[in-house]
Each structure stands twice: as C-alpha cells, then as structure tokens.
C-alpha cells in the first residue's frame, strides 16, 4: 500500500517508514500540513498516518481534507489523551486514534486492518477509462489519475448511466448527499477540472440541460 506519514518529528517518521517499507509498502513523508496536501493531491494514497500537532496546519483540518476529497483511511497520532481530544479526532474523520508513545508495529497492524475499507473497490469501465470508485482514481491506459471526492462522484454517476443527461441540480444533489445548495454552477468548475485531468472530451455538454458521457468515447473514437 501507499502510505503517507505526516509528523514533524523526524525520529517518528524514520521509524515508521522503516517498518512500512520492510513490510513491502511504499511510503511518503511530510513534516508539514501544506506538504501533506500537495502529496495527497498528486499521489493516489491507500493510508495516512497523521500527527495531530503540526507546525502550520492543524491535524484535524488535514484529516477533514483527506476525507472530504479522497476518503483515505486516517490513523491519527497524538500525545493528547483526554476523551474530548479523542472525540474531536473521530469527529474530524479519523478511522483510528493512537496515543503516543506507541510501538511502530502496532501502527502497521492497525493500518493493515483498515486497508480492506480502501480495497473493496467497485470498478466502472468506460472506453479506455477504468474508474476505481472507492479510491477516487481513474486509470487510463497506464496512467493513474487522482480525483477529488466531488469529481469522482460526478464521473461515476455519468459513467454508470452514459445515455442519461444530468442537470446541474441533479449532479449537485448527488455531490452533497441531498443537502440543499444555492449555487449549482459549482458543478461547472468540477466538470472543467475533470476535463482537464482526463485530457479528453469524455464529458459532453447538452446545452440547456446539463451533462452526459460522450458515447463516442466508449468506442475509443475521440
């Protein structure tokens, strides 16, 4: 699995990196929240090990970002031991919460137990795209393309029903889980980002109505 270890203590990142790599996993290390977000946005990760106390961005904010955009399992590390701190950690989206000090083998075991949450994938195929729903990732030929949660939601809905035209309101409703939102035009920006990432005209605009998949793309004709 691809593991991002986020901690500003070099001793902790070194020992965790050693344990995960000896287990055959691929590791990425970040000492700041800003760098962590950059890695999340560029690499399809399977797991995040996250220290609650970072020098620039609060760990709970990083956790919320990971869950909102990518649904990556998060193990939160912290020296805070109160029940209120644990509740705040879980409320921010953490899947597990480990109090320092800890043994690195414990973190490895906890990560492997969470991994099935990530690997139970539903796959959608459209043309030369393979969409891994639970990973928010698209494979096109040999290229892996990471999507945000909203981008993945839109693409999956369109690709599962390629003959159907969806209005902005339809797509927005699906994105936010039925919560009312005042600006359906936000969908246009997500479509724009998808087109840029997919680097092809897979999504068709039906003027005056909304969006659908370009059925010609399903036969590799575009």
Automatic annotation (TrEMBL):
Gene3D superfamilies: 3.40.50.2300, 6.10.250.690, Winged helix-like DNA-binding domain superfamily/Winged helix DNA-binding domain (1.10.10.10). One of its GO terms (cellular component) is protein-DNA complex. Pfam families: Response_reg, Trans_reg_C. Transmembrane segments: none annotated. Residues 121-215 bind DNA. CDD domains: REC_OmpR, trans_reg_C. Residues 121-215 form the OmpR/PhoB-type domain. The keyword GTP-binding does not apply. GO terms for molecular function: phosphorelay response regulator activity; transcription cis-regulatory region binding. One of its GO terms (biological process) is regulation of DNA-templated transcription. Residues 2-115 form the Response regulatory domain. The modification 4-aspartylphosphate is found at residue 51. This is DNA-binding response regulator. Keywords: DNA-binding, Phosphoprotein, Transcription, Transcription regulation, Two-component regulatory system. It comes from Rummeliibacillus stabekisii.
């Amino acid at each position: 699995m691809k593991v991002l270890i986020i901690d500003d203590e070099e001793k902790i990142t070194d020992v965790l990196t050693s344990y995960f790599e000896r287990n055959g996993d691929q590791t990425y290390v970040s000492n700041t929240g800003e760098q962590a977000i950059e890695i999340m946005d560029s690499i399809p990760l399977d797991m995040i090990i996250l220290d609650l106390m970072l020098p620039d961005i609060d760990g709970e904010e990083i956790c919320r970002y990971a869950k909102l955009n990518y649904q990556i399992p998060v193990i939160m590390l912290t020296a805070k031991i109160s029940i209120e701190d644990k509740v705040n950690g879980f409320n921010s989206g953490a899947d597990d919460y480990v109090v320092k000090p800890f043994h690195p083998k414990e973190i490895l075991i906890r990560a492997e137990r969470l991994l099935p949450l990530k690997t139970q994938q539903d796959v959608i195929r459209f043309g030369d795209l393979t969409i891994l729903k639970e990973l928010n990732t698209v494979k096109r030929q040999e290229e892996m393309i990471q999507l945000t949660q909203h981008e993945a939601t839109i693409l999956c809905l369109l690709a599962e029903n390629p003959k159907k035209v969806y209005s902005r309101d339809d797509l927005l409703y699906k994105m936010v889980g039925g919560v009312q939102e005042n600006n359906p035009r936000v969908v246009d920006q997500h479509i724009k980002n998808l087109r840029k990432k997919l680097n092809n005209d897979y999504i068709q605009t039906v003027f005056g109505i909304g969006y659908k998949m370009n059925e010609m793309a399903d036969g590799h004709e575009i």
